[in-house]
Design goal:
Layout lengths: L13 E7 L5 H11 L7 E7 L4 E7 L2 H4 L2 H4 L6 E7 L14 E5 L2 E11 L2 H10 L9 H10 L6 H9 L4 E8 L4 E5 L8 E5 L2 E5 L3 H5 L3 E5 L4 E6 L2 E6 L8 E2 L1 H6 L5 E2 L2 E2 H15 L6 E4 L5 H11 L7 E3 L12 H11 E3 L1 H4 L3 E6 L6 H12 L4 E6 L21 H4 L2 H8 L3 E4 L2 H8 L6 E2 L1 H4 L10 H20 L1
Parallel strand pairs: 14-23, 17-20, 20-21, 21-22
Antiparallel strand pairs: 1-4, 1-10, 2-3, 2-4, 5-6, 6-7, 7-8, 8-12, 9-10, 9-11, 12-13, 15-16, 18-19
Length: 482
Amino acid sequence: MVSRVLDRKINENCGVFGIYAPGKKIAEIIFYGLQALQHRGQESAGIAVSDGENILIFKDLGLVSQVFNEQNIAPLQGHIGIGHTRYSTTGMNIWKNSQPLYRMFKNESFAIAHNGNLTNVKEIRNEQIKKGVNFETTTDTEVIASLIESSEKENIEDAIKETTGKIKGSYSLVILTKDKVFGIRDPHGFRPLVLGSLDGSYVIASETCALDIIDAKFVREIDPGEIIVLDKDGMRSQMMLPVDRISMCVFELIYFARPDSYIHNKNMFEVRHRLGQELAKQYPVDADIVISVPDSGTPAAIGYSAESKIPYAEGFIKNRYIGRTFIQPKQETREISVKLKLNPLKDIIQGKKLVVVDDSIVRGTTSKKIVKMLYNAGAKEVHMRITCPPLIYPCYYGVDMATKKEFIANHKTLEDIREFLKVDSLKYLTMDGLVKAVGESKEKFCFACFNGEYPVQIPKNIESDKYSIDKEEKVSSNAWKK
């Protein structure tokens, strides 16, 4: 896992999709499903299909719409397939790390795609290398694939089940064999995975929004520790691992999942709306308008407005054609990169006392630039409200946040952060307010980034491991390019 948060946002994970549907144009369906999951990863995309005998894969770097076209989708013929859209929490953003990965078990080919992050990846990888296994990438996904490949089980289904007993951490997997699709969710349920139906066939996806776009019906969430198998006989399910504690990442509800998706039968827009309402109850302020840092702060800003009776207005216009903002060599270029994404509406802002609602603050550097933009646009006061508690601890389960020392809240007091941002007031939603807005038992979620209570034990050397992996991959990547 390589920490690459470059400004304010916590970066997404990955999106996975699987389907078994004879008579359907599988590749096209997967393409549309991946487009609905594009928010979960914008670095690469891939589709693998099977006609019952052979598996064919096409993948590349870029957005789903950039990777696929009529020419490269046409050859992907089959009735069964999986897809993946990637944000690289482990392994660099290079072609060989794109997914699905193609591998062999005995004489049978399979493809695998993964959302999440293993905590024992280094340990397993070293054990596999000692056994003579050669790795082409440094992704967690290849480590999982290597365990399946090297299994001594008689069939691939048993090899997959054996593998899940060895890996630890977060994983929502889709695996394609010549005649089956497997959907697997880790026993803690860190990442979402849902089951849908489409004209009598079955679909697996990271979020319900991917079902909506293909007119599939939501059946249920795949349970933590459950393996789903789709084949000619339909769908079958098995609980493969004991569930000690369900620990879904709470940031799926705060930020990651699309607002139109459902988790625990709750619409994400409504959950975020309630986050804003709780903020308004806990931290009222005398202001003229409520605005959001779009788009992730918008549902909560609307909720804050509804509860406080302060009018909601659009304070920024967001350029939705700008991708991720990467580190630039000159400070002036970094300033421009923020302005490219967000432009304040001066006539709305000028002379007003603002409540500005956002989902989180990581380092605080981009939040500071946003506040400066608002004052330059004529804001009289800026009161920032954040829909979660302060981020203090890093995530090791597939969320690209920051290292512990890089979180501004880890080494600054609330007043220090307020002064750094140069806002008139700053308030974070309390843990109790977060739990109340989510509307589920606290025991069902992982709050480790707020309180440091990790559901799965974290190896002591995990920080040094991730940097050594990155360094190793940079060397191998340069050699590969040559």
